[in-house]
Description:
CATH superfamily: Histidine kinase-like ATPase, C-terminal domain
Bound molecules: adenosine-5'-diphosphate, magnesium ion
Shape: globular
Oligomer: single chain
Distance between the termini: 19 Å
Structural class: alpha+beta
Number of helices: 5
Radius of gyration: 16 Å
Amino acid sequence: MSIKTTAMTAKLKFKEKGGDIKMKKSRVVNSLKIQFPAKSANEAFSRALISSFAAQLDPTVEELCDIKTAVSEAVTNCIVHAYDDSVPEKKKIIKMHCFYDENNLLSVKITDNGRGIEDVKKAMEPLYTTGGEDRSGMGFPIMQSFTDELKVKSVLYKGTTVTLKKYIGKTNYDI
Ligand SMILES: Nc1ncnc2c1ncn2[C@@H]1O[C@H](COP(=O)(O)OP(=O)(O)O)[C@@H](O)[C@H]1O
Ligand SMILES: [Mg+2]
């Protein structure tokens, strides 16, 4: 069994017990900020973007797939849920802030200025959706299981910020 598997198992056990992973604070090595319109065409763009950025950390194929999937879920939520038709097109914006530190901890903050979420805890429950039959209500659970940390901050009528954190390429974390 590799060190990675052992560490991952320990981390999962810790998560199951309701604990948060203690993440080491460390110097930011590289960062990128970008904003783009909340259009469905840009979901694929966000995947390509995080893929290129994370490539600097020499990720495994699995790590790359995981972070791309999590980012895609967060960006899709901004596209689908954040803005209704009353918002002018030019104000339908998604901001993405990506950075990583010396411990290979990759962070991605995805922000919209949309309607916000009334009850974040409820919204994060598996199968909860306000999107009707087209949606699965599994976006947040997927983001949670494919990353090491998920944080959601939302203010009604102001917007939502989802922060995804994932160690890439090594398992240098404290639990
Ligand atoms: N950026 C957002 N702005 C407003 N509401 C959101 C946003 N992201 C998620 N939500 C709310 O949280 C619910 C759950 O999201 P999610 O787990 O991704 O499932 P789904 O997208 O399939 O509905 C959504 O149905 C929506 O009500
Ligand atoms: Mg979703």
